[in-house]
Design brief:
This protein has 13 helices and 16 strands. Strand 8 (389-395) and strand 9 form a beta hairpin. By secondary structure, it is of the alpha+beta class.
């Protein structure tokens, strides 16, 4: 049976998971709204309140209700109008004048224009203005004409000297360096997702490992802004790539270790995902809706698989939720959300690599991509000192990202189920012998007939070790039939 849990969010504790999830969901929604709007602005606060009133189910916890109260206070706050101070000599434009006032002020304007009207130029000034053909003006004209003649004679030669006969080669080099950098940036993002979301590393560890993998290239340009590089820098970079062997005959030559990495990413479902050609806000909503559908199918499939082990509906849903949280981080399939909230989750899934090119990145059905056992069609199970029993096994769950299920049956018509979970915290070590210790990978559940077993599983050399009640003598062995 699952242990009773206490759920904590900051300094507050919750008795039930539902209360915890509602509070956590409200905090995420509030964070998204505050990032998008200025909640201290009455107009924007009023806009948010209108959306919340149209969707009463937006907030479900005290956090949400306090946020709504804050918005209401902002909206009801009186607006202070700062008076405009104008010069005494100017006519005020903020207060409309009456017709009588206008008629009284009109003569003043005419008199003012008369006063400001410049005096007529004298005949001597006119004569001075008409003296255009002076010696000084004549000299300036000669200089201008000479400049035009010189420019017309030498400009074609100057342009021909500045034009680079290797412009086409320069364009090719820039395009190659740009494509090289883009390919590295995409690979780096996939590697970060693999180490963070699948291997379970911290953000710093995942970033460090993804950067370490790129050292297989001659240069790491994944974070370099190619568009700002000068032609000399492009040429120097291109020459380095050619000398190092990453570019040959204007074609990329991928390092063998990078090819192996990409195969691993492909097995984990993190590569070769194409776009659905939908753009804009519609694509964001469609991607989040697809994620919700995908999560719902996985949740009920996992719940059903745990029910095969004999657990109650409540326990099955709890185990399934733990698996879903390990896989997705945010479990949203049973949420009712506004478009603004979906935008927040879209960005979260995008950062984790679970949405790419506006499509959901599906988890691989290969257990080894997530360090889970891939049993052979025939296995042998031995508990403690009892003799080993042979069973036929077949995988039954459809996405082994956090756990994998097998159905087993023997030639004696004895049936059962095995579940391995990838929920180990990498802190519990099991001593194999005097020189070797291994990490407990996670929980296991085995049901055979009326008997059930549970504990921790680990990789014990060529077998799968079962750690139960302080004893590690039980194991599951692979059977390789070389006749097929």
């Amino acid at each position: 049976m699952a242990q009773v849990k206490k759920y904590k969010l900051g300094e507050l504790e919750f008795e039930t998971e539902q209360e915890y999830r509602e509070a956590a969901g409200d905090l995420k929604r509030i964070k998204g709204l505050m990032a998008k709007y200025d909640v201290s602005n009455p107009e924007q606060a009023r806009k948010i309140l209108s959306s919340i009133k149209a969707h009463p189910e937006t907030f479900r916890s005290p956090y949400g209700r306090k946020f709504v109260e804050k918005l209401e206070k902002t909206v009801s706050r009186p607006v202070t109008v700062t008076p405009i101070t104008e010069d005494p000599g100017q006519v005020s434009r903020s207060v409309p004048a009456s017709s009588d006032t206008l008629s009284k002020k009109q003569p003043d304007k005419k008199e003012k224009r008369k006063k400001e009207k410049p005096p007529k130029a004298s005949s001597d000034a006119k004569k001075e203005k008409l003296q255009i053909f002076t010696i000084r003006n004549f000299i300036i004209g000669i200089i201008i004409v000479a400049g035009i003649v010189i420019f017309s004679l030498f400009a074609p030669r100057l342009f021909s000297l500045n034009s680079n006969p290797t412009d086409s080669s320069s364009v090719v080099k820039r395009n190659m360096v740009t494509a090289y950098a883009k390919n590295q940036a995409d690979l780096k993002a996939q590697l970060y997702t693999y180490y963070f979301n699948i291997v379970g590393e911290t953000e710093d560890e995942a970033k460090k490992d993804s950067e370490e993998e790129l050292k297989a290239y001659v240069l790491d340009l994944s974070e370099q802004s190619i568009s700002t590089m000068t032609e000399n820098e492009i040429t120097e970079t291109y020459d380095q790539l050619v000398e190092g062997g990453d570019i040959q005959n204007n074609s990329f030559v991928e390092p063998s270790s990078i090819t192996v990495l990409k195969e691993k990413l492909l097995a984990a479902g993190l590569a070769n995902k194409s776009s659905n050609n939908v753009e804009g806000e519609t694509a964001v909503i469609a991607a989040v809706n697809s994620m919700m559908d995908y999560q719902e199918r996985i949740f009920y499939a996992l719940s059903h698989n745990y029910s095969l082990l004999g657990y109650s509906e409540e326990d099955c849903e709890e185990y399934a939720t733990e698996d879903m949280t390990a896989m997705f981080g945010d479990v949203i399939f049973n949420f009712t959300m506004s478009e603004e909230e979906k935008q927040v989750y879209y960005e979260s899934f995008l950062k984790k690599g679970l949405i790419k090119d506006n499509q959901v990145v599906r988890f691989s059905t290969d257990p080894t991509a997530y360090n889970l056992p891939d049993l052979t069609p025939v296995i042998e199970v031995a508990f403690s000192d009892a003799s080993a029993e042979s069973y036929h096994s077949s995988m039954i769950n459809y996405t082994p990202a956090a756990s994998v299920f097998y159905e087993i049956h023997s030639d004696k018509d004895e049936t059962g189920y095995i579940c391995f979970r990838n929920n180990g915290d990498k802190s519990q070590y099991i001593q194999i012998d005097e020189e070797t210790s291994v990490t407990a990978q996670g929980d296991f559940f085995i049901v055979i007939g009326k008997n059930s077993y549970t504990g921790k599983w680990f990789y014990n050399k060529q077998d799968i070790g079962l750690f139960m009640n302080g004893n590690q003598d039980s194991k599951i062995s692979y059977v390789y039939d070389l006749t097929y």
